[in-house]
Each structure stands twice: as structure tokens, then as C-alpha cells.
Amino acid sequence: QVQLVESGGGLVQAGGSLRLSCAASGISVRLNAMGWYRQAPGKQRELVARIYGGDYTDYADFVKGRWTISRDNAKNTVYLQMNSLKPEDTAVYYCNTVPYSSSYWGRGTQVTVSS
């Protein structure tokens, strides 16, 4: 059974930083393309960053240069370092494979950025 448990969210002022973690079990983050997604109120869930293959990374245009996705294969954990946060980054953040598997969604972690 696959479990993805997100943590690290919180309330931060604009310009601040957070580091999200996604602890995986039942699936290898090394062998799968992994991504961070987010869903803001009233909006669809969207992919913001992914890591795949030999640590190749891709980012949505709105986060390029601000955030970094990484993974620790020994800990089977994926991270998202979020710098220069903006109020529009407020959302619930989830990790999943890329493309996602509907049965893998966790509870997510709330990120709230105040202006």
C-alpha cells in the first residue's frame, strides 16, 4: 500500500521560506518520477515541480528560480524548498507520482503566505 505523507507547511510572510517534505512508503522515490502539486481554493490542482531520472527537474513557470525540488533516496523522501514566497502561493501542497495516481493522494500540507 502506497502512502505519501506531506509535512512542513505553515503560515509565513511574503518573501519568507518553507521546506516541504514528502515521506513515501510502498513506493520508491528513486524509481518513480515524483512531483509536488498544489491546489488553491476554487482552483484545480496543478503540478508545480517534478524530479525524475538522474535527478532531472522541471518547474512550472511561476516558481522557476524560487523553489527547488530534491529527493533523499535513503530516506525515501521528496522535498520542496520554497523561497521568496508570495501570497498567491497560498494553497494545499501534495506530492504524488508524475503522472499522478489517484489512489496515492495524501492529506497535503497547508501553506499560507500573508502579505
What's this entry about, in short?
The chain is mainly β and 115 residues long.
Can you walk through the features of this model?
- This protein is an all-beta fold and 115 residues long.
- Helix content is 0%, strand content 51%.
- A six-stranded mixed β-sheet has the order 2-10-9-4-5-6, with no helix packed on it. A four-stranded antiparallel β-sheet has the order 1-3-8-7, with no helix packed on it.
- The model has no long low-confidence stretch (mean pLDDT 97).
- The chain has strands spanning 3-7, 10-13, 18-25, 34-39, 46-52, 56-59, 67-72, 77-82, 91-97, 109-114.
Which helices and strands appear, and what pairs or packs with what?
Blueprint: E1 3-7, E2 10-13, E3 18-25, E4 34-39, E5 46-52, E6 56-59, E7 67-72, E8 77-82, E9 91-97, E10 109-114
Parallel strand pairs: 2-10
Antiparallel strand pairs: 1-3, 3-8, 4-5, 4-9, 5-6, 7-8, 9-10
- Tally of DSSP helical segments: 0
Helix percentage: under 10%
- The secondary structure category is mainly beta
Mean pLDDT: 97
Number of separate strands: 10
> Secondary-structure element order, as H and E?
EEEEEEEEEE
Proportion of beta-strand residues:
over 45%
Main sheet: strand order: 2-10-9-4-5-6
The end-to-end distance, rounded to whole angstroms, is 40 Å
Rg computed from alpha carbons, rounded to a whole number of angstroms? 13 Å
Largest sheet: 6 strands, mixed
Morphology: globular
**Low-pLDDT runs:** none
What structural keywords apply?
4-stranded antiparallel β-sheet, 115 residues, globular, mainly beta, 51% strand, 6-stranded mixed β-sheet, single chain
